[in-house]
């Protein structure tokens, strides 16, 4: 059975103080809701506060990026070992904003994924197409390519720590949400790529999230689709009531 994972991606929001307050407020709202894993991926500066506030709860903490080298002259970067020691369990890799604004490539996504998995982290690997690429009919080709590139040299036994998040770039922060059918189709393309690279059993067991503006209003419909195993949540993860509603939808 594939595990449903509801993960918040806070992006560049929340201070350490606000992080602790948020998690303390959220924890009783999601307590006992065990049909999905609940994750908050927070800015690096907030990780210590988040880990401390989440102790004794069913909330797991993730980071928003990881470097592919263990150490070195990489000013501003954070290694997988640092994240593990800080108490992080998950890490987002290759988010469209990292690709768009910070020069992330399919190659560096792959290197970061390998580093995260070697350190024992759970990698939430993001793939997705732009509006232009969709309109040109490249969605399936691009999603399969990005998925296979990201997982190059990943060992079969490491797949248990891989989550792939399909996030159509045209539906992130734009107010436009893919239909449930489009989300299911995109996630299906990702699953087909896993099957081609690792076999059908691996494809059926891997968690594939939808990451294109899932919110409290559309979560139930999106999560009802066969290929949608959770969500990578942006803006709605910054509101306790909205994030809880999504968790509730995953536990229905």
What does this entry look like structurally?
By secondary structure, the protein is an alpha/beta fold. The chain has one domain (4-241): Aldolase class I (TIM Barrel). The chain is 43% helix and 16% strand. The chain contains eleven helices and eight strands. It has helices spanning 16-30, 47-54, 80-86, 96-102, 106-118, 131-135, 139-150, 180-198, 200-205, 219-223, 240-250; strands spanning 4-9, 36-42, 59-63, 90-93, 122-127, 162-166, 207-210, 230-233. The chain is globular, with a radius of gyration of 17 Å. The model has no long low-confidence stretch (mean pLDDT 96).
Helices and strands in order, then pairings?
Blueprint: E1 4-9, H1 16-30, E2 36-42, H2 47-54, E3 59-63, H3 80-86, E4 90-93, H4 96-102, H5 106-118, E5 122-127, H6 131-135, H7 139-150, E6 162-166, H8 180-198, H9 200-205, E7 207-210, H10 219-223, E8 230-233, H11 240-250
Helix pairs in contact: 1-2, 1-11, 7-8
Task: Give a quick summary of the entry.
The protein is of the alpha/beta class and 252 residues long.
The total of beta strands comes to: 8
**Outline:** globular
CATH H level, superfamily name: Aldolase class I
Chain-averaged pLDDT: 96
Number of domains: 1
Helix content: 40-55%
- Name of the top-level CATH class: Alpha Beta
The largest sheet is: 8 strands, parallel
Span from first to last CA? 16 Å
SSE string:
EHEHEHEHHEHHEHHEHEH
- Beta content comes to 15-25%
Structural class: alpha/beta
Number of helices: 11
Which characteristics define this entry?
alpha/beta; 8-stranded parallel β-sheet; 252 residues; TIM Barrel
């Amino acid at each position: 059975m594939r595990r449903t994972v509801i993960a918040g991606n806070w992006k560049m929001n929340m201070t350490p103080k606000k992080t602790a307050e948020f998690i303390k407020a959220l924890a009783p709202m999601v307590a006992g809701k065990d049909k999905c894993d609940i994750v908050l991926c927070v800015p690096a500066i907030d990780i210590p506060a988040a880990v401390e506030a989440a102790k004794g709860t069913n909330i797991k903490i993730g980071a928003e990026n990881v470097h592919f080298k263990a150490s070195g002259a990489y000013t501003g970067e954070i290694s997988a070992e640092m994240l593990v020691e800080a108490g992080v369990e998950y890490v987002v890799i290759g988010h469209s904003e990292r690709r768009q604004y910070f020069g992330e490539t399919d190659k560096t996504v792959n290197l970061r994924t390998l580093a995260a998995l070697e350190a024992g982290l759970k990698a939430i690997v993001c793939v997705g197409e732009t509006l232009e690429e969709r309109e040109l009919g490249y969605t399936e080709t691009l999603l399969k390519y990005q998925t296979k590139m990201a997982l190059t040299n990943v060992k079969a036994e490491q797949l248990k720590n891989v989550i792939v998040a399909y996030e159509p770039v045209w539906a992130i922060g734009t107010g436009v949400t893919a239909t449930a059918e489009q989300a299911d189709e995109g996630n299906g393309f990702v699953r087909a790529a896993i099957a081609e690279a690792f076999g059908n059993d691996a494809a059926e067991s891997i968690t594939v999230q939808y990451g294109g503006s899932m919110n409290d209003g559309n979560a139930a419909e999106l999560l009802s689709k066969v290929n949608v195993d959770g969500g990578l949540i942006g803006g709605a993860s910054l509101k306790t009531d909205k994030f809880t509603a999504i968790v509730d939808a995953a536990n229905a």
